[in-house]
Design a protein that fits this description.
- By secondary structure, this protein is mostly helical.
- It has one domain (about 1-80).
- The chain contains five helices and no strands.
- α2 (about 20-35) crosses α3 (about 40-45) and α4 packs across α5 (about 75-80).
- The chain is globular.
- This is Integrase SAM-like N-terminal domain-containing protein.
């Protein structure tokens, strides 16, 4: 589901995340839209450009889903047919 999230973000912004400045740019756009900060280094890890063996935090996934207009990552998953909302 994270791969789908990455692809949808790239499609939304009309730009592939390839070089470090792309992630710095996206970090600014995410903060402008969501009022939440996700660093460029966190985005590079999420895109797999830095492998530290650490998966993305719930906060990061929620902010990125919110960037796409979803309330959180869980709602994003539901929209993709990936599970049920927990009560």
């Amino acid at each position: 589901m994270e791969q789908i999230l990455r692809e949808m973000i790239e499609k939304m912004v009309g730009r592939k995340m390839v070089v470090p400045r792309d992630f710095a740019w996206l970090s600014e756009k995410v903060e402008e839209r969501t009022q939440q900060r996700v660093s460029a280094s966190t985005l590079r890890r999420f895109w797999g450009y830095v492998s530290e063996g650490v998966s993305a935090s719930k906060f990061t996934k929620n902010v990125l889903a919110n960037f796409l207009g979803y309330a959180d990552f869980e709602e994003f998953g539901l929209s993709q047919g990936m599970g049920e909302r927990q009560s």
